[in-house]
Amino acid sequence: MRTFPKSLAQLQQIVKERGKLLRNIALEDLKQLANQPDECIRVGSRPATISVVVHPQDDGSVRVVVQGFMKARLLPGKHVAVDGFYKHGDGTVASMNTEELYNYD
Questions:
Q1: Alpha-carbon distances of 70 from 25, 52, 76, rounded to whole Å
Q2: Model-level pTM?
Q3: Which end of the chain is more exposed for a tag (fewer CB within 10 A), N or C?
Q4: Is 1 part of a structural domain of the chain?
Q5: How many domains, the chain?
Q6: What is the dihedral sign for C-alpha 18, 98, 80, 104?
């Protein structure tokens, strides 16, 4: 039994794939993405937005969060898909846990 819309599953897959690609980008290149505009896409027939949020950290690393937003079809509100990680100066990547993903500032 499916517990959420098929389009949300597709949005989550797109967000995860963007996160996977961004994990392979150099730290300095990630820093350049900090002020990029949101990207408007279509998931099936539904409009959605992908945002990449890059926050510099005190230790020189960056926190990267990929967010996907899509208006809910039947109920008020939006569906949200997220992925995130920390990229360090030595090139290592650390995953963000679920609480961090949904509560970052």
A1: 26, 15, 11
A2: 0.86
A3: N
A4: no
A5: 1
A6: negative
